[in-house]
Amino acid sequence: MSGTAAPAGAFVWKEREVDQRKTVLVVDDEPDIRESLRDALEDEGYLVVVARNGKEALETLPTLEKPVAIILDIIMPVMSGAEFYAAMQADPRFAKTPVLISTSDASRAPSGVLLMKKPVDLDRLLDTVAKLF
User: Fold this and answer.
1) What's the whole-model pTM score?
2) Greater confidence, 2 or 110?
3) Where exactly are the structural domains of the chain?
4) How many angstroms separate the CA atoms of 123 and 66, rounded?
5) pLDDT number for residue 106
6) Mean pLDDT of 84-102
7) What CATH topology corresponds to 16-132?
8) 3-state secondary structure the chain
């Protein structure tokens, strides 16, 4: 980071500037992954909301203040990430919401979506999330 001061309302940490109003919705059925990502993203200054599956994410998404970005697992019970993504794309309110797919099976991911194969490199994930906003 250069010698300039961070803008008012920004949280500076590890060379990244994050406006505290930016929200990341983490959708993953693995509790350890959800909590690890929550901790890392909160340390970066994001407001983080978690969901255990696509159904919970669809119920949560309309309640979140924009801007929002989503980190989405694909293989989940109840409603898969692919099903959630399709439902989100069908709703004009959410169709342009940035999504980062984080999955162990890239072949199941929707085409044209930003993808990170698990296990993810945390610094790379944080850099990528910052660019989603």
Assistant:
1) 0.83
2) 110
3) 16-132
4) 24
5) 85
6) 96
7) Rossmann fold (3.40.50)
8) CCCCCCCCCEEEECCEEEECCCEEEEECCCHHHHHHHHHHHHHCCCEEEEECCHHHHHHHHHHCCCCEEEEECCCCCCCCHHHHHHHHHHCCCCCCCCEEEEECCHHHCCCCCEEEECCCCHHHHHHHHHHHC
Q: Is 9 left (phi over 0), alpha (psi -120 to 50) or beta?
A: left
Angle at which helices 122-132 and 31-43 cross, to 10°: 60
Whole-number Å distance between alpha carbons of 46 and 2: 22
Rounded to an integer, what is the distance from CA 114 to the centroid of its chain? 11
- CA–CA distance, 126 with 123 (Å, rounded to integer): 5
Question: Tens digit of pLDDT for each residue in 68-82?
Answer: 999 999 999 999 999
Q: Which amino acid is at 71?
A: I
Q: How many residues would you count in the chain?
A: 133
